Amino acid sequence: MSGEANPFESLQEQVDDAAAYLDVSGDVLERLKHPERVLELNLSVDLDDGSVGRFRAFRSEFNGDRGPYKGGIRYHPGVSRDEVKALSGWMVYKCAVVDIPYGGGKGGIDVDPAEYSAAELERITRSFAEELRPFIGEDTDIPAPDVNTGQREMNWIKDTYETLENTTEPGVVTGKSLESGGSEGRVEATGRSTMLTAREAFDYLGKEMEGADVAVQGYGNAGHIAAYLLEDLGADVVAVSDSSGAIYHEHGFDTRDVKEHKNETGSVTGYGGADEQFSNEDLLTFDVDLLVPAALENAVDGDLARDVRADVVVEAANGPLTPDADDVLTERDVAVFPDILANAGGVTVSYFEWVQNRQRFYWSEERVNDELETQIVSAFEDLIDCYEALDVPNFRTAAYVVAIQRVVDAYMDNGNWP
Ligand code: NAD
After folding, report:
1. Which terminus of the chain is more exposed, N or C, with fewer CB under 10 A?
2. Atom 4 (ligand 1): residue with closest C-alpha?
3. What angle in degrees, to the nearest 10, is found between the helix axes of 365-389 and 189-205?
4. What is the value of pTM for the model shown?
């Protein structure tokens, strides 16, 4: 996020924009624009060569009015206090829009994991977990994976916490491996909520998914699963891309075959069934019915948005449109369904993982997928009700209005402890 607008200021602007449609006092609104608590750490960790590495690490607990703080931990060079504060705020509104009983948090370490051995990363992670121990717990603050962290890191955090606390408490983190208390369906959940949001959006807009042309930017965890599931609904996934470029096939790809090719060669480009190869930017402006940005933030800016020809955009990535792009697409009547709903499958199935951990009773993949569908469809309906009832400019603002209202209601009902 470096070099872009300050993400924390963007978050505060989004809250202000949505608040214009809500009856919320200025004091209460101000609470929703600042984290309750930010922990900043300076970790000292023994490295393999005998030296000591120092790493800045953060955990922001933004708002706990609706439940324990919830959100991922990212390992990335340049992770900053403001970035983590903003991401923790977005988690508050993501959890609220899908109505799961969590607040929002986020953490990160300023580290490039590619530069360290697995043993060093384990020591870095366990050092962070030890420092986090007084703050985290299944009823207080529940970390999860984010950029460059996954099941391995979550298993280490869980083990460190459980060892120091002399307990078994798998619900202290989510996104664990199945053997360590993870949930069926967790890995696919983000792509699945993207598909469900697209399906509901097409239905609402009176568009046919069968035979619709779809372009998916980014063929990683979120993108390739969304592509599989949209193809299963009868859509033609005519274009996909990754960091090496884009491919196009006018009759649509066999999306699983493309993934096989990517697994073998490291990229989607060069796939045999493609008509032609294109740049990443070309893909974003193809004449398709649905565009799914599933790569990184700020993929579409205001200039590029003028050339987007998709009728509908469903955001699998976090923040793939800049605020300028959002304004342009709203003006051009392109229907954009926001990240806080479309990629909320990950945190929703994290919630299911936590419920299973607490009950020590594990669900089938079918049950996980059914419960996820219920949650996303219900959130979509709430968003549409808000969009139709208030004269909001787009579906993103509707999502924030729904989410902020839920947080404000919880705060007002709880009362204030002076
Ligand atoms: P990933 O690393 O598995 O995949 C990212 C993909 O994007 C890769 O295929 C990469 O090659 C591609 N890519 C990078 N730069 C690109 C570019 N300029 N053009 C085209 N493709 C490019 O990551 P992911 O887990 O799939 O996450 C993708 C997005 O979804 C991120 O914004 C992430 O925050 C968001 N998200 C993911 C989850 C999840 O559960 N995985 C949950 C919520 C949100």
Report:
1. C
2. 220
3. 40
4. 0.95
Q: Residues enclosing ligand 1, CB less than 6 A?
A: 190, 217-223, 241-243, 280, 294-296, 316-318, 343, 346
Tell me the DSSP string of 194-253.
HHHHHHHHHHHHT---TT-EEEEE--SHHHHHHHHHHHHTT-EEEEEEETTEEEE-TT--
Q: What pLDDT was estimated at residue 5?
A: 65
110: CA distance to ligand 1 center in Å?
Answer: 19
Pocket test for ligand 1, best of 318, 339, 341 (most atoms within 8 A of CB): 318
For domain 1-34+185-342+369-418, the CATH class is alpha beta
Among protein residues, the one whose CA lies closest to atom 15 of ligand 1: 243
Per DSSP, the chain holds a count of helices (H) and strands (E) of 15, 12
The yes-or-no answer on residue 106 being catalytic is yes
The rounded distance, in Å, linking the Cα atoms of 399 and 292 is 18
Q: Examine the pLDDT at 251 and tell me if it is beyond 90.
A: yes
Question: Ligand 1 centroid to 59 CA: how many Å?
Answer: 22
Quickly name the fold that domain 36-171 has.
Rossmann fold (3.40.50)
Residue 345 has pLDDT above 60, yes or no: yes
Q: What is the Cα–Cα distance from 11 to 324, expressed in whole angstroms? A: 14
Domain boundaries, the chain: 1-34+185-342+369-418, 36-171
Query: For ligand 1, what atom is nearest to the CA of residue 319?
Result: 32
- Can you tell me the mean pLDDT for 319-341? 95
Task: Output the average pLDDT for the chain.
Answer: 95
Sequence-distant (6+) residues with CB within 8 A of 275 are 248, 249, 250
Distance 248 CA to ligand 1 centre (A): 19
Confidence at residue 4, expressed as pLDDT on a 0 to 100 scale: 62
- Substitution site in 343, 351, 352, 376 for ligand 1 pocket (most atoms within 8 Å of beta carbon): 343
- Element of type H or E holding 40: strand 37-46
304-308: average pLDDT: 98
Choose the catalytic residue: 70, 85, 94, 106: 106
CB distance 319 to 298 below 8 Å: yes
Q: What is the pairing mode between strands 312-314 and 104-109?
A: unpaired
Q: Which two tokens stand for residue 87?
A: 């991401």
